[in-house]
Write a structure and sequence with these properties.
Layout: E1 3-9, H1 16-30, E2 34-40, H2 46-49, E3 57-60, H3 65-75, E4 80-83, E5 88-89, H4 94-101, E6 107-116, H5 121-137, E7 147-149, H6 150-155, H7 166-176, E8 180-190, H8 193-198, H9 200-215, H10 220-231
Parallel strand pairs: 1-2, 1-4, 2-3, 6-8
Antiparallel strand pairs: 4-7, 5-8, 6-7
Length: 232
């Protein structure tokens, strides 16, 4: 089984090379063929310009995670697409774990459990709640490194061009086809920078409120404006 890792970036030149080294290390541990596609949403393209590895596919697209990830998926050759945020690290044997999960033809894709790179106990609570929510709803978030068979991704039209919850929307449409994602209990580790910058309680409550608004039928455009106003 071969993989394409699609990384949407925006002003991430300071961390992109260490992330690429990390992905290559995880690929080497698995023995699977893994291509890396970095899609820069900045018109200045400073992140892809900073990439040192010649084997990485470098692209520039209009900004927006959904738009960027679709652009990467269009040039991907892997049987499985892995959508990885720039501030998220994969667990050991990540690609072997995904390959083992997808040996079941009924499993269309899935995600990893969530880990956060801060030792404070409050983040363990956030992790447990996030992992419980995703397993109960079968709808993981993008910071859990969503992966999906490329044929399934193409058949549902990829990500929609919406400013927020493109990950939730994708998984809801996959579920609507009758397919179900699987979950890997080895967690990815994502940066705590958002919670640290904006405050744990404020960020958590805002995220719950916006998610409730999404399921209540508020438009992604309205919710994105609300998000930006609350985050400022």
């Amino acid at each position: 089984m071969d993989f394409s890792v699609v990384v949407p970036v925006y002003h991430e030149s300071g961390r992109i090379n260490s992330l690429i080294d990390h992905i290559c290390s995880r690929a080497g541990q698995s023995g699977h063929d893994v291509e890396i596609i970095v899609v820069d949403g900045s018109p200045l393209a400073e992140t892809v310009s900073a990439i040192k590895c010649e084997n990485v596919k470098k692209m520039v697209s209009f900004p927006g995670r959904g738009t960027q990830m679709n652009a990467g998926a269009e040039v991907a050759s892997g049987e499985v697409l892995v959508f990885l945020h720039a501030d998220t690290l994969l667990p050991r044997s990540a690609f072997s774990l995904v390959s083992s999960l997808l040996e079941d033809p009924a499993v269309c894709g899935g995600a990893f459990d969530l880990g956060i790179d801060d030792g404070s106990k409050v983040y363990r609570v956030i992790e447990r709640m996030a992992n419980l929510r995703s397993r109960l709803t079968h709808i993981p978030y993008g910071d859990q490194a969503i992966f999906v068979r490329s044929c399934v991704f193409s058949s549902i039209g990829g990500y929609r061009n919406i400013p927020i919850f493109e990950d939730v929307d994708l998984m809801r449409r996959i579920k609507a086809t009758g397919l179900q994602p699987g979950f890997i209990d080895s967690p990815v580790v994502t940066s705590a920078r958002r919670w640290q910058r904006e405050g744990v309680l404020r960020t958590t409550f805002r995220n719950w409120l916006i998610l409730a608004g999404y399921f209540a039928g508020f438009s992604p455009e309205f919710l994105e404006r609300f998000y930006r106003r609350e985050a400022s």
